[in-house]
């Protein structure tokens, strides 16, 4: 199957550069990379243009003007412009382990979407990551992370290089198999069926809302949070507000109560 990887970014060129290096070393490089840019400045474009010159796969920069937080809108544009049957979604601050694409390809199933997670890094190791360390896969090695300043915590088990542990943890985790924007994948045809992302949504739950509509359509989540691995670089979130979180919660409650499948304000605009 043809695979497209869609990553989002907004004015974080330093982090995006590290993420692109992570995709450069994938064991499965048979994919197209679409960078959904919510209006970044010229330094982000330069990083993408420079990376594209030597990338082992097609790289496309999907861009629109900065008019505030419009992540859902740029994601919908990327979905439409993708040439692939199957789409993997992540963020421009999440570095993928070198088997990230391969795991999503291997685990894909009809009438399912895949639900991955991330390991959230602290500031010190986030700053310490460079291209050489990504090539050596250091950010996914527990010993290196701890030596670089990462606090010891249970979440580090996600990085354990043991297939039995990852299998058991995926079976035993109480975490729901939700659609997570930093690490999820699904069939483009299923995403079109629900009309993509709801462009009424702001930060906080916008990805979950898409997954909830997929579930209402009969597309169920499959847990791979301990198998498809990425690490999340540390940074502030100034766009997180109580007002937007409350608004998004109301939208999600309505989706659950009414069993909504198709959003009217998605890829296609429909009368309300």
Folded structure, characterized:
The chain is of the alpha/beta class and 272 residues long. The chain has one domain (3-258): Spore Coat Polysaccharide Biosynthesis Protein SpsA, Chain A, CATH 3.90.550.10. Helix content is 39%, strand content 17%. It is built from eleven helices and ten strands. It has helices at 13-24, 42-54, 71-81, 100-107, 123-128, 131-135, 142-147, 163-172, 188-193, 206-216, 242-258, and strands at residues 3-9, 31-37, 59-63, 86-91, 94-96, 112-115, 119-120, 184-187, 220-223, 230-232. The strands form two sheets. It has a seven-stranded mixed beta sheet with strand order 3-2-1-4-8-6-9, sandwiched between helices. A three-stranded mixed beta sheet has the order 5-10-7. Helix 10 runs parallel beside helix 11 (242-258). The longest helix has 17 residues, at 242-258. The radius of gyration is 18 Å and the shape is globular. The model has no long low-confidence stretch (mean pLDDT 94).
């Amino acid at each position: 199957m043809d695979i497209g990887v869609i990553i989002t970014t907004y004015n974080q060129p330093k982090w995006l550069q590290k993420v692109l290096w992570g995709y450069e070393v994938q064991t499965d490089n048979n994919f197209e990379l679409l960078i959904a840019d919510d209006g970044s400045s010229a330094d982000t474009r330069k990083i993408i243009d420079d990376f594209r010159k030597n990338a082992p796969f097609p790289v496309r920069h999907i861009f629109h003007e900065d008019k505030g937080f419009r992540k859902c809108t740029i994601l919908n544009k990327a979905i439409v412009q993708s040439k692939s049957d199957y789409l993997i979604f992540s963020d421009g601050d999440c570095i993928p382990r070198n088997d990230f694409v391969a795991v999503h390809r291997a685990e894909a199933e009809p009438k399912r979407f895949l639900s991955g997670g991330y390991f959230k890094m602290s500031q010190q190791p986030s700053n310490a990551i460079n291209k050489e360390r990504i090539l050596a896969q250091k950010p996914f090695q527990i010993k290196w992370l701890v030596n670089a300043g990462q606090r010891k915590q249970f979440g580090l088990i996600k990085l354990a290089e043991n297939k039995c542990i990852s299998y058991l943890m995926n079976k035993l985790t109480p975490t729901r198999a939700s659609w997570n924007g930093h690490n999820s994948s699904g069939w483009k045809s299923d995403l079109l069926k629900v009309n993509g992302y709801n462009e009424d949504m702001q930060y906080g739950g916008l990805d979950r809302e898409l997954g909830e509509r997929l579930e209402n359509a009969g597309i169920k989540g499959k847990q791979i949070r301990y198998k498809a691995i990425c690490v999340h670089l540390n940074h502030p979130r100034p766009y997180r507000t109580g007002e937007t979180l409350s608004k998004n919660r109301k939208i999600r409650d309505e989706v659950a109560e009414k069993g909504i499948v198709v959003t009217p304000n998605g890829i296609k605009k429909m009368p309300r």
